[in-house]
Amino acid sequence: MSRLQRYNPGPGVADLWEYFRRPQPYRWPILIASTLPMVLILAWATSETALVEPERPKVTYISTLAADRSDEEIMASNIANQEKQDARRAELEAVEARKRELYRALGAASGMDVEAMERQAAEERAHEEAAAAAKRQEVLETRVVPGAADAAERGTD
Asked: Residue ranges per domain, the chain?
């Protein structure tokens, strides 16, 4: 209860009003001088208007491929890109295999059951791959042309 009385603005407002009601020679000029800056700032801020719509942004499309490529050129570039991706994936798999080999050596040196840890990691990887395959299958079935999942499995159009 004492905190509410401590932060109650009522007595302060009453004191200000009592002080302001006393007859003083410069009461009105001081009041006008003290409120004038705020009134001017508010008048300036509220008078701002935008009469013209903003200019539409200019979009620049960047294309790194020629628009007049033939289907053979497109397929050749896709095959080259896929080969690059396969090479990168093989490098990453080699790095991961090397890491597993180093961790296997570290675990064996530490006296851990390395085979059990490898089995658990293999199970986790298989579970993640199965989840990713299920997600791909779901996307193919629901978001792409119906029957695309079967065609993707057969490798035909």
From this structure: 2-46, 82-112, 116-157
